[in-house]
Amino acid sequence: MTSESHSPTGTDDPTLGPPPGCPAHGLGPGGLHRLYGPEAEDLGALYEKLRAEHGAVAPVLLHNDVPIWVVLGHGENLHMVSTPQHYARDSRLWTAVQDGTAGADHPLAPHIAWQPICSHAEGDEHLRLRGAVTGAMSTIDFRSLRRYINRATQRLVNEFCELGKADLVGQFAEHLPMSVLCEILGMPEDYNDRMVHATRDLLKGTETAIASNEYVMGVLTQHTLRRRANPEEDFTSHLINHPARLTDDEVAQHLRLVLLAAYEATANLIANVLRMVLTDPRFRAQLNGGQMTVPEAVEQSLWDEPPFSAVLGYFAKQETELGGRRIRKGDGLLFGIAPGNVDPRVRPDLAANMQGNRSHLAFGGGPHECPGQDIGRAIADVGVDALLLRLPDTELDCKEDELRWRASMSSRHLVELPVTFAPRPPQDVMQRPSVNALPRQRPNWQVTTEASEPSPAPQPVAPQAPPTPEPAARLGAWQRFLRWWRGY
Ligand code: HEM
After folding, report:
1. Which numbered atom of ligand 1 lies nearest the CA of 81?
2. 144 belongs to a structural domain
3. Which of 47, 131, 274, 381 could pair covalently with 339 via S-S, beta carbons 3.0-4.6 A apart?
4. Which residue's alpha carbon is nearest to atom 40 within ligand 1?
5. Is residue 325 within 8 Å of 332, Cβ to Cβ?
6. Range(s) of the domain holding residue 276
7. Ligand 1 close to Cβ of residue 275 (< 6 A)
8. Would you say the CB of residue 145 lies under 6 angstroms from ligand 1?
9. Which intervals carry biased composition (Pro residues) (predicted)?
């Protein structure tokens, strides 16, 4: 173990850097880099600077200059998430929460605040809550799921195929996962533009986020009560009837967790894969030539642009060591998925194809490893494949350097992906994408969707958007925050 140059618990040696907040260096107290503000505009570049200066585990500052470690090494990240005896996801262990520097008024409070859900639980309570989630997931029939994803894709493509142009973020990537998740949860009637907008809005943490969160929570609570009274064959009913005996509140909170975790990550993944295929001639050529399948392109994207770039956070339960750093009990650590995925020790050549290698960090690892990864992969694989089959002549409708991203510490998503293609008529959504509907010869996309379905009946298009959520009721700021924090 090397000697310490910094402790996130706040015992910095001031001689090691410029004076606190030195404007000449643009660094924060203790000469530490900030993961927010101007320097963090290009987080990828900042992580590489930190790796060069500090190695696999670097001391940094979060908003309000709260100290934390960012874990940059692939092996160090894996070790942290897989060692529950040393690291927990329970933020109440964090010194910065205990001393109030990362309290309820911290800008990242919604990411930090402890909630009674499986992501923050440990030990037996984690097993109980996660067991109910994975038990309900195990009842999903993947064959029917893939068929549904294909149909939902056809329905979305039908809405814009006659126009010859679309924004594949706003009109496709942000809709497909919501449609599929509402179906999985057993509430397909709740899939509509309002649900999509409210979920996106609450994830962005905008002024209307509290009202949007109330809307989503209201829908999920009502659905929980409906299924408690009349169970059906869906995820929600299996969650309710699991031997773990979740309360109605626990069920609704876990529906929210599943909906949000799954929606944001899968929407990002679909947008990233489509952008990669449309802008990187290598991928398009390999897909066209059959040397690469859509699932392989998805896996490459999970290495290069993980849908969640970091998770805040893990917290040290006892004094320990990570990447040569002394970690004190109560220290906070940022799970660095994006920097871990480009650790030069596992990827000396970033341009090299990672085909067949699934050891990226995109789904986490250890006891909290994402239990929904096969669902996320299925939505991206089938959706992208079916879209490219329907519109194989899709081209980017702007210069690549005009594409814009919205980035935060935890994720980075494309704002728009404008494309053009030859206009063509809508297609029967129950059918597998058909070559006959296409105006010119198609490339040889790798088909992974299920076989055609028997019924020729056309499906209705998605319902019209109801008005956006009403502003939050007139509660005090603190009450509004607590409701938002707890997900009510
Ligand atoms: C591309 C899609 C997805 C990605 C990249 C992704 C990624 C992740 C990550 C990084 C974590 C946190 C791991 C940690 O705390 O160490 C997580 C947790 C979780 N994910 Fe996913 N996820 C995806 C899709 C889904 C889907 C489709 C579902 C459900 C249908 C889901 C449900 C969950 C749940 C319930 C947890 C909490 C597990 C626990 O703490 O025990 N995710 N996911």
Report:
1. 16
2. yes
3. 47
4. 119
5. no
6. 123-307+365-486
7. no
8. no
9. 455-470
451 within some domain: yes
Residue 119: closest CA among 315, 267, 305, 304: 315
Number of compact structural domains in the chain: 1
pTM for the whole structure: 0.85
> Does residue 333's CB lie within 6 angstroms of at least one atom of ligand 1?
no
Indicate whether residue 258 lines ligand 1 (CB < 6 A): yes
Residue 378 lies in a domain: yes
User: Which residue, judged by its Cα, is nearest atom 7 of ligand 1?
Assistant: 363
Each of the 488 residues of the chain gets a pLDDT tens digit; together they read 333 344 454 433 333 444 444 444 579 999 999 999 898 999 999 999 999 999 999 999 999 999 999 999 999 999 999 999 999 999 999 999 999 999 888 888 878 889 889 999 999 999 999 999 999 999 999 999 999 999 999 999 999 999 999 999 999 999 999 999 999 999 999 999 999 999 988 877 667 888 888 999 999 999 999 999 999 999 999 999 999 999 999 999 999 999 998 999 999 999 999 999 999 888 888 888 888 889 999 999 999 999 999 999 999 999 999 999 999 999 999 999 999 999 999 999 999 888 889 999 999 999 999 999 999 999 999 999 999 999 999 999 999 999 999 888 899 899 999 999 999 999 988 766 543 333 333 344 443 333 333 333 333 333 333 333 333 334 444 344 334 443 33
Quick one: tokens of 229?
A: 């009274």
How far CA 487 is from CA of 132, 217, 311, 482, in Å, comes to: 20, 7, 19, 8
| Burial tier of 243 (Cβ tally within 10 Å: 0-12, 13-18, 19+) | exposed
CA atoms in the 13 A half-sphere facing the CB of 24: 3
Q: Convert 76-112 into a string of H (helix), E (strand) and C (coil).
A: HHHHHHCCCCCEECCHHHCHHHHCCCCCCCCCCHHHH
DSSP three-state, residue 68: strand
**SS3 assignment, position 363:** coil
Is 470 within a domain?
yes
One DSSP character per residue, 202-246 reads: HHHT-TTHHHHHHHHHHHHHHHHHHHHHS--SSHHHHHHTSTT--
- The verdict on whether omega for the bond into residue 313 sits within 30 degrees of 0, i.e. cis, is yes
